[in-house]
Write a structure and sequence with these properties.
Chain lengths: 242, 218
């Protein structure tokens, strides 16, 4: 479904990604973890072309992200993305946030879009918050709206960039539960996260990154039981110790 | 106090009103035209292509570096030389004001656009919107809130600047008042009137900005 081949990316003289190769199969949930600054977020933003790459190739469902002739907006419409800081549109209600791209990208009528948005907001447990503005919602609620917004495009795959990192601890689970339900429904997911519990419950495979490289790409059981690199072992000791 | 004759204001009112009408016309035209042209310049300056952003940057820098009075002169005296026929004082003043103010409106609009977090653009692009849609649906509505006080502020400055049109022999409110002042020998009365009127208009505009700011903070 998602194929990354030898991705290189530099910001000025800082090399952020050094030859990353990975793939996510249809229906698979892959967790990307690693210390801060290891390039995880940059990698996931390359998948839908939000970050242009210097070298390598990326395809999503057979369509090249890096090809100049690819209609990037059309491709992005098929890939949902959820951000660390939610990035809901502050000047719109929850319902409008979810309906906007359906109306302007998928060209659904407002009534059609709103009906779909109501369904999705119900699915993430927010039926009572349709007309709330983002600043009236808790962080966990905002992130669930933003998941609904991504789902509103009926995406083929979902990208999550540290979806729980900006949340208060007591709100982390409500978001993880929504994500877990999505995974059970068979959604293809690539998730950058420090939530190792989520990885253990939901992921099929774990990618471990450090210094712009993918050091491990293993099935979850193998990654947690017996990581093959020393750095992954150290990382696991630190994040699992509490 | 016996020496004051406030009746001079009532007697010269139609003439003063003409001046006020010209000031108002200049403010309205230069605000509307300046914001439109300024928006265009702001979008050009944001372009990734140097041949689009460059000219806009040069234009804005030059216009912001010269005094308005010079721009008024240029258009009144130089443009007729170039095109070979007179343009007329009013037309040249209107054009000069629009072109001059556009540079300032450009910077205000640009600051408003830049005040919106980059993540908003990323999130909107990720849903498949095109850049123009992101600008219109996500960035502009948020940027507008940030730039509104500054836009109002600029309107006040334009209103005060309209008095400069006397250099191309036009009569705005300030100029008409000064004509009456010397014709009737009543400078104290007339300049007091001018001060009070400017104060009233600019003060109420500032007050409006303040109230708008408070409304937003709520």
């Amino acid at each position: 479904m998602i194929v990354l081949n030898d991705i290189h990316k530099s910001y000025g003289r800082t090399q952020v990604l050094r030859g990353c190769t990975a793939a996510v199969k249809l229906g698979e949930v892959v967790v990307v973890c690693g210390p801060s600054g290891s390039g995880k977020s940059t990698l996931i933003k390359c998948v839908n072309g939000l970050v242009p790459i210097d070298r390598g190739s990326i395809t999503v469902d057979g369509v090249s992200v890096t090809d100049k002739h690819t209609d990037l907006p059309a491709l992005r419409a098929q890939i949902g993305m959820v951000f660390q800081n939610f990035e809901l549109y502050p000047h719109m209600t929850a319902l409008q946030n979810v309906s906007l791209a359906q109306i302007h990208v998928l060209k659904r009528s407002r009534a059609e879009a709103d009906a779909r948005s109501e369904q999705l907001l119900a699915r993430v447990g927010l039926s009572s918050k349709l007309s709330s503005r983002p600043d009236q919602l808790s962080g966990g609620q905002q992130q669930r709206v933003s998941i609904a917004r991504a789902l509103s495009m009926d995406p083929k795959a979902m990208l999550f960039d540290e979806p729980t990192s900006a949340l208060d601890p007591e709100m982390v689970n409500e978001v993880l539960e929504v994500m877990q339900a999505l995974a059970l429904d068979g959604m293809t997911m690539m998730v950058v996260t420090h939530e190792m519990g989520f990885a253990q419950r939901v992921a099929e495979r774990v990618l471990f990154m450090d210094g712009g490289e993918i050091l491990e790409d293993s099935p979850k059981s193998q990654f947690f039981a017996n990581p093959s690199t020393e750095r992954a072992r150290q990382f696991l000791t630190k994040v699992l110790s509490h | 106090m016996n020496d004051f004759d406030w009746g001079v204001i009532a007697r010269s009112w139609p003439f003063l009103a003409e001046g006020m009408a010209l000031s108002a016309l200049l403010v309205v035209v230069s605000t509307a035209g300046g914001i439109l042209l300024g928006l265009g310049l702001a979008l050009m300056r944001r372009s990734d292509h140097a041949f689009i952003a460059g000219p806009a940057t040069v234009y804005v820098t030059v216009m912001r570096s010269v005094p308005l009075i010079l721009v008024l002169f240029w258009f009144y005296f130089l443009v007729p030389l170039v095109i070979g026929r007179p343009v007329g004082a009013l037309a040249s003043a209107l054009v000069a004001f629009v072109l001059f103010e556009a540079a300032f409106y450009c910077e205000i609009i640009r600051a408003g656009i830049n005040s919106v977090r980059a993540g908003q653009t990323e999130a909107a692009l990720a849903t498949g919107m095109r850049r123009s849609q992101v600008m219109r649906l996500i960035i502009m509505p948020q940027g507008l809130r940030a730039m509104t006080p500054l836009l109002f502020n600029q309107v006040i400055i334009v209103f005060q600047d309209t008095s400069l049109v006397y250099v191309v022999a036009l009569r705005d409110f300030m100029t008409t008042a000064s004509v009456v002042a010397s014709r009737d020998g009543r400078p104290t009365e007339m300049y007091t009137l001018v001060a009070v009127v400017y104060l009233a208009i600019c003060f109420s505009l500032s007050k409006a900005i303040e109230l708008y700011g408070k409304g937003r903070a709520r």
